[in-house]
Amino acid sequence: QAASKLIPQAEHQLGVMYEYGLGKWSAALSTHTESSSPHPFYTVYLYLSLAMDLLSVCLCAGVPQNFKKAMEYYKRATEKKYVESMYHLALMYLYGRSGAIAYPQALALLEAGALSTHGPSAYYMGIMKTYGYGTNIDYAEAMHWFDLAATSGDERVSEESFRNAQELNALLQEAEAHNSAVQDSYRLRQEEGAEL
Fold first, then answer.
1. Which residues pair with 23 in a beta bridge?
2. Contact of 121 with 83, CB cutoff 8 Å
3. Which of 98, 116, 138, 140 is the most buried (most CB within 10 A)?
């Protein structure tokens, strides 16, 4: 059971290494393919091959940047519900590192991560709802996601999310005040017209 928990973490770390191209290519980096037929030793093989991939990087072998390989590893970890990989995979879709920008896939992954209280996923949901990337602009929902990110305890996004939520709240209050003033002005004109 412990090994099955470590596999998505190892897959995620390999995804990060390929996404950012940590180090340089080395023949020492092992590669592996998934077995099409279940074999009693396949899980052990998979775990050991992942460990060898990580070990080769620890020995400064490194890997070249390769978005396709990064996505492959992120997808494997995402299938095992590893939230940090969901987030990285979502950003790859969001920034077009998968070949083309894919907002629907990014939104689905970010929402799943945000609902698992993953701060960075909630932050990006707030961004997407604020600017309407692949979705309708919805400031109230954006504030909800920013509030969730701000209270997630994740230092990567807590402060920025809190600021964004405050700015959106101020804008919404300003818009509400302006809307009330316009309605009052319209009502006053109607009353004045009725008196004539």
1. 62
2. yes
3. 98
